Amino acid sequence: MMNVPEALAQVIVDRMKEIINQDINFIDVNCIIIASTDQKRIGKFHGGAQTVLKKKDMLVITSENQYEGTRKGINLPVYFEDTIVGIIGITGSEEEVSKYGKIIQSMTEILIKEAYIVEQNKIERESQKQFIEEILFRIHEEDRDAIKMRSELLNIKLDIPRVVLVARIHEKTNKKSPKTPVINEKIYNFIKRFIEFDPQNFLIQSGMNYILILNENSVNDIKGWVENIHSTLLKEYKNTIYFGIGSLSHNEDELSESYQKARGALKVALSSKDLFYVDYSELDLEVIIDDLSDEVKKKYLHDIFKNMDERSLNDYMELLSTYFRNNGSIMKTADELFLHKNTLQYKLNKIKSVTGYDPRITRDLVVLFIAVLIYKSEQSGNPSML
């Protein structure tokens, strides 16, 4: 039998009072008032509820304490799936409150049913999230039969072509207030509305990331679909969302691999100022860098930039990144950085004197370009590299 939570019962009686402006009680099946618009009555025994439970019908109380702990009014059984789960009581004379009885009874039953559906959806969502995380993260290995059985129970087909996407909302460092759970839920529901057209599309939130598992057959143009989410979110919430797109998968092992690739692609997207999505299949040098250990990356930057402080390193990286993005054009780089071209030349000479590598020479340029990629990659996950 369903137990109506006290918090839900209190919401119901408060909402009903707004409609009819009468004191209302919610009594549980143990005949205890668990919610009331008269706070002094909460926790008290209600003798009339016993009669309602026995008769399964409305009870009119015509005088104070006609039954233990009662006042004048009407009391009606509240049903959920043909079972009484409580009693709703309206305080007042029969003439005042009888006209509201059936309406309040029906509205209470509707609110309880809606709350139950919401709770069941939460349970289903959490069960799907747990199963998908186990598949993607390989929290523990299960035998194939167990995986297959759980996927069938949760209606998650693992043998259809799927693509994993990992997304993250851009966090502005100057933003004073962090995202609250309410805002997180709004963004979750915003993204979810783009995938609800196919029951085999799934969305879970893991830390700062939103993980989308898409049925490849239902999304013909993933990049166009991603662009639509990005532009709509920017318009509605004034926030930028970044995506990493993984590889095509056909089973749970490949699904886990697709997730890892999507995560790597997202890392590249977050480190770039120009791209809000990155497809792992289109990466080349970034893939090699992503496979390097943190120790190797740290040593590479240290060998080139020695013991440079973070601020100076960041300034040089910004300059080099802009220089590479403009294919070595002094004029375009200077314009983008609001520098005189002679000042830019001076700064490039300074990089050469500090590192021993000249970004205007092809061989040296490659060394510095890799350093920029490593720095950007690690900045998205590990701000301190030197």
From TrEMBL:
InterPro entries: CdaR-like_regulators (IPR051448), CdaR_GGDEF (IPR041522), Diacid_rec (IPR008599), PucR_C-HTH_dom (IPR025736), PucR_C-HTH_sf (IPR042070). Belongs to the CdaR family. This is Sugar diacid recognition domain-containing protein. Gene3D superfamilies: PucR C-terminal helix-turn-helix domain (1.10.10.2840). Residues 317-374 form the PucR C-terminal helix-turn-helix domain. It comes from the Bacteria. Residues 143-268 form the CdaR GGDEF-like domain. Coiled coil: none annotated. Residues 6-134 form the Putative sugar diacid recognition domain.
